[in-house]
Amino acid sequence: MCVQDPCAGSMCRIHEDPSRIQGPDRCRSGTHLLRELSDACREGGLKFGVHLSPWDRNNPLYGTGEPYNEYFRNQLREVLSTYGPIFEVWFDGACGEGPNGKRQVYDFPSFRAVVRELQPDAVIFSDVGPDIRWVGNEQGWAGETCWSMLKAEGHGIGNDNPPSTKSLNEGDLDGESWIPAECDVSIRPGWSYHANEDEKVKTPEHLFDLWERSVGYSANFHLNFSVDRRGLIHENDVKAVLGLKAMVDASYGPGTDLARGRPTAADDIQGLVPRGTNEPSHDEPFGSDKTVDGDPKTYWATNDGATQAAIEVELDPSKPFDRVVLAEPTWLGQRVKAFRISVPAEPSNNHRDWVTLAEGTTIGHQRIARVPETKAKFVRIEILDSRACPALTRVGVHKAAAGAKPAG
For the stretch 260-273, what's the b/e string if a residue is b when 16 or more beta carbons lie within 10 angstroms of its beta carbon? Predict the structure, then answer.
C-alpha cells in the first residue's frame, strides 16, 4: 500500500503539525495517522509506501527555492525515519503556482539522496525512476510493447524535460537504464472522494481489463482509493476490488494453469545441439520443461547466438483456454522482441500445420496474451526475434474468468 501525503496542497497526514489533520475522531485521537497505517500494513502482511508530493502550495516557503527544498527534505526525513520500513517512495513533478504567485524549482537529486540514506531498499518512482517509472498516462495501462529499459539520461521530472509519452509507455529498446513501468489509475473518475461518484466506481470487469494490460504487459498496477468523510474506503470501492481479486484468482490462481507439469519440447536447448521440436528436453538444466515446473528461478534457454526458437507444450485437448502467459528471467535482462502463439490446425492436430492465435512484441517479467477461446492438443510459442539468446521461465495456459474481455 502506498499512501499519498500530501498532493497539491491537500491535508497533511504526518505528525509534523497535528492541528492540520482534519477528519473523524478516530483520526484525531493524538496518534499519528501514518503510524496507524504503517502498523496496520505490517500487521496485515502488506508493504508500506509513501507518495509525498513536493507541491505544498499552501506552505509560505513554497517558491522560495532552497529554503523550501530544505523544508521538504526535512519532511521527507521525518516520514522515512519514523514509519519504515518503506518499500516505495513516489515522487510526482506537479509544480503549479502557490498563493504567492511563485513556482518552486525542486531539488530532486537531493530528495533522492535522502531516500537512499534512510530507506536504501525502497524503490523510487518518478518520470525517470531511478527505480520505476510513470507509464505516461493515468488510465492504468502500459503499451503492448513495454521495455523495462529507458533512456533517462538528460531527462527530468514533471516540467523538467521528461521522457516522451511514447518512451514512458513503451520504454526504449536501447535504453541505458533498467526502469520498469508502473501504471496508476483511480478506481473512481477522480483521485479524491466525492459522494456523487459513489455509483461511478469501476467495475471488477473494467479493473480486470486494466490489471491484464498492466501486470500482463510487464508493468506494475497502482490502483488509487480515496478515503470518504468517515475516514474509510467506501463500500462500493471495496466491493469492486474484491470482485477484481475474485476474477484474478479464478483466472490465474492456484490450479488454473493448464500447462503446469505438462510434456514440453523445444528446437534449441542451451548446451545441446539444436534439434527438432518433437523431441523431449530430458530434464536438461535449461530444458523446455523448466517453463512449466512452477519455479520462477528455473528457465529454458537456447544456445548462445540464437535469436529465434520454438517451444511446445502438450495440453489436454478437452480443456478450453483463452490466455497464454509468458515470462522471461529478467535478471538476465529483457530479450524478446517478437513472438507468435500457435495451435495445430484442425482436424490434423499434428506438428505440421499451425494456426496463429496471437502475435506480440515484448514479454519481460510477464506477458499475458489474450487469444480466441481454443481447445488444442499442443500450443506452440515461437520466438521470432530476440536481443540475445531466447530464454523463458514460464509458459502458462489459462481460461479467464466469466466477464473477462475476450481477444481482439
Answer: bebebbbbbbbebe
